[in-house]
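Format notes (please read before filing issues)

Several people have asked whether sequences and structure tokens are stored in separate files. They are not. Every record keeps both together, in the order shown below: the sequence lines, then the token lines. Line labels are part of the format and must not be stripped during preprocessing.
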Amino acid sequence: MWRFTVAAPVKMTENQSRNLLLSVKPNFADLLLSGEKTAELRRTQPRVNPGAVALVYSSTPQKALVGAIRIDSVHTLDPAKVWERWAPRCGLRRAEFNNYVAGCNAVTVLLLDKVRAFPVPISLAILRHRWDRFVAPQSFRYVVANEIAALLNGEGRIVEELSLESTIASGYSQHASQRSPRA
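Then the structure lines:
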């Protein structure tokens, strides 16, 4: 019998490792994590590829990291087209949508395909204890693997579950030569 051992972290390409920390209002965080909201809108386009993972930070009054979502696709379109195509998936009434997109020529839609709620939300105080440079974003910011590992402190399996299978497969094939026999 053989088993895989990984001596070093799997090296990811820049696009695979470019994940997000999204700040959302608590009511929208709940809708995202329940699966009722499967399209997240952004006035500024995040530069991520399909398969990227976004950590969900629920803003005031909760102020906690509450889950993670996997981005299926990214679309930037005229606001009217966004409403026409994805209104039922946005979790917004028309007036809320219009208020959010007022003054925008284009809106970015992150379509989601997988969602994981954390068993226990991670409060802002704990996040800052785990990563002293932690800053909750106004909208979103990029996060790297070592920051995710520190913030999740052992809950990284949740993000790994959301990662692209091809990323996991390429990591194992990359280290296939490091097999060792089972004891």
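For reference, the curators noted about this record: Strands lie at 2-4, 19-24, 39-42, 53-58, 64-77, 107-123, 140-143, 179-181. The chain has one domain: 15-176.
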